[in-house]
Amino acid sequence: MRASFLELLFDLVFVFALNQVGLRLIKDFGTGHELLIGEAAPTLLLFLAFWVLWLSTVALTSRRSPDLLLVQIVVFLAMAGAVVMAVVVPQGFEQRALVFAGAYAAVRISRLLLLLVFRRLGFTPSTGLWVAVGAVLWIVGALVHEQGLRAVLWTLGLAIGYFRFTAGFKRFTGAPIAGEHLADRLQQFYLITLGEAIFVAGKALSAGDLGTPHATGLGLAFVAVVLLWRVYFFRAGAVLPLAITGARNPLRQSVAVAGTHLLMIAGVFLAGVSFELYIVEPLGRPEPNWLIAILGGPALFLAGRSLLELQVFSRISRSRLAGLLALGLLIPATWHLPPLAAGGAAAAVLAGVAGSDAWRARGRAPELPAPRI
């Protein structure tokens, strides 16, 4: 079952949301101070909140037709909440934390109330209890003044939300369209993230200097996006629906695949942030702090892509592991290089992985999925 027009409309909200989160992370990198994990954690939490909201909605539309009026109402409520959350992202963990948390909790509670009233779509008392606990954690976290405690409470709320996705998926294990639909939706979200990276790169050039180094940065970003698309869809990404529906345990396979897509999407998201950094300051002084995005983004993508290959074919290509090793070795090599040079090195690694894929595929029949699960 392909995605409905309603689901595609729902995805458009997350184009705006990802852009807002990306701008916040770019601002974090542009502070001029060393970016610590603790400082980036709030932005990561906001990103994960959108991911859990999107994924929980996908779980619903994978087991019930989007043509049902009740499903449409639930999706539109999720869209409204996501828009409010996206609007307040710049201060979503600070001054406007209550608005962000309130919108997230409102989506979860309104969905719970609808299921309770109509007694449909697999509602159970345990579902209501966990959703309520998660919503309370978000609201209480927004009300406390200590941001460290807020981060802890919101992390617990996110964990409950992801657990509900996993548990909810059990109710349609064995449904013939569920795995194909989930694969289709995950691929679409991945493409949205690639599109957001292109948007960030183009906006960075149009808003700044149109000189040769900056234009070169845009060209490099475009090449990197093409390579991220190519490496993902080469075989494992292309046959993902068959790998889920043909698995011995489609439930475990679906949940595992969703997790690996989170890694890849986060990697592409970080890479998009790096495009902004080296397009605006292509030949500026070396910024080792920026290597978190410039090299860390492709590394996170390759790590997720390696796990996806393991889930689909029960093996990992040596080129993926070599790419990860090369990115690690590039950290000291690019430490004192300008941002554009580091970006070029990262793109060269991705090109090497894509070239290895093309070389191995010469004269061979397409490989069929062989999932272990």
Automatic annotation (TrEMBL):
The keyword Iron does not apply. It comes from the Bacteria. The keyword Isomerase does not apply. Keywords: Membrane, Transmembrane, Transmembrane helix. Pfam families: LtrA. The chain crosses the membrane at residues 40-61, 68-91, 127-145, 151-169, 214-234, 255-278, 290-308, 320-335. This is Low temperature requirement protein LtrA. It comes from Micromonospora inositola. The lineage of its organism: Bacteria, Bacillati, Actinomycetota, Actinomycetes, Micromonosporales.
